[in-house]
Design a protein that fits this description.
The longest helix has 23 residues, at 46-68. The chain is mainly α. 21% of the residues are buried. α1 packs across α2 and α5 (108-119) crosses α8. The protein is 60% helix and 0% strand.
């Protein structure tokens, strides 16, 4: 078998032990060291590598599962698309109209003030959002909440779904600043994005 030279730096004490072991095994130093390398390299088989990869993948799945446990199932985890935002705007308008009738508000203004109080209490909300939501609800050909605006609303430290939470609290006459993203009886944000105003009759 063709051989090539390998030059390495080694601790003198270790070299002495290797020489002693080679002598006791009845092999030359070169044969002994070559056999040791072959045995060690052979132990690192493809099966061993595959096993390690499988262990790593299992650990990653466990980490992902743990992380997902802290994310409410009803929270949207992907960015909004333009179609989803349109469905959301339609849903918001339909819910407002239904609650206006169901709660028998004396005026639209009173209903609006009641609703917005349940939404504006969250940290990512601003006066600009208030004006934009008002435009969404009351101006037929106005510009509804945009994709960028809806995506920014999911960045809140307390509640990532302030409009959905506000609607739930408003409908149920709940405390204004309590996050209810985990509410499973109300349509999830993703379901709202997919079905829009068609969900209102089932609330």
């Amino acid at each position: 078998m063709k051989r090539t030279q390998l030059n390495i730096n080694i601790d003198p004490a270790l070299l002495k032990k290797i020489k002693d072991a080679a002598r006791l095994s009845g092999k030359s130093l070169t044969s002994f060291v070559s056999d040791c390398f072959a045995k060690e390299v052979g132990a690192i088989s493809e099966k061993t590598i595959d096993t390690r990869i499988s262990i790593i993948e299992a650990r990653l799945e466990s980490i992902e599962s743990t992380i997902s446990a802290f994310v409410p199932a009803n929270q949207k985890t992907t960015p909004f698309t333009s179609e989803e935002v349109q469905k959301c705007n339609e849903f918001i308008k339909a819910v407002f109209k239904r609650e206006l009738r169901r709660k028998q508000y004396k005026s639209i203004k009173i209903a609006w003030n009641d609703l917005i109080d349940h939404i504006k209490c969250f940290d990512q909300w601003s006066d600009t959002y208030t004006m934009r939501l008002k435009e969404t609800l009351f101006i037929d050909h106005g510009d509804p909440l945009s994709v960028d605006e809806m995506n920014l609303l999911t960045k809140g430290s307390k509640c990532p779904c302030p409009i959905r939470t506000g609607l739930i609290n408003w409908i149920n006459n709940s405390d204004e600043d309590s996050c209810c993203c985990s509410n499973k009886t109300f349509p999830s944000l993703q379901t709202i994005c997919e079905k829009g105003s068609s969900l209102v009759n089932d609330l």
